[in-house]
Please model this.
Amino acid sequence: MRRSPKPVIVAIAVTAAAATIAACSSSSSGTSAGSSSSTSSSAGGQVTLSWWNNATADPLKGIWVSAVTAFHTAHPNVTIQNVPHQNEFFKTNMPIALKSNNPPDIYQQWGGGAEATQIQSGKLADLTQYVSGWIGTLGKAAAGWQVNGKFMDCTRFRFKTQVNEFERWIIQNSSGGWQHPVHIHFEEFRILSRNGVAVKPGSIEFARKDVMQLRGNDRIELLIRFRDMVGGYPIHCHNTVHEDHQMMMIYNVADVGDNNTRP
Ligand SMILES: [Cu+2]
Model:
């Protein structure tokens, strides 16, 4: 490696996650945007809540039905109406439901841009205080799609590389079985080794690439060269669900790089 004083190893570990749960506030106190859901009801100590989720098919559909039944058994005064919808439904109809002050009491959302906008509407309840005692027990399932434990931040570069230099990067999948097709923008790279096994001529992986197949627990060592252009570029998982929910980072090709080995 040409980079002095020693090659930079950029370790990029990806972790897994699922959607987040958002709840709509039914209180109008403290905010002019408070909603009044017509789908929840309370009478004689009995509460009925509507829940929109995307489990339209088994096995998850059956799991949620069982969960709703179990919750009602544990809390006989609470009935949850399980309402499955297709994924696209949430992108188009949740904003409409919120704008019309007729949202479900609980709904599924994927963290990221759409949820950020909905939070700004003031119509969602912050559940942090209610879940902080146990949410950690869910492990990665509640951790969000992250790179090196961080979500995408469009306002800053995670690291800088130096123009006209090479770097050696380590891309490590520690997400517990999820696969991530990782796409590096701007320059193509060469995979040097996968899980400690050198990639040699004749292997399909020997050619230059801009996307790598990062299978469960894979560790890929690659060589990447930055030629005559400077500027900011993204690295992201090419699974669009992961990508759209913050499994992404941006880096900067600059006149002077840095030695950040865990950006
Ligand atoms: Cu992914």
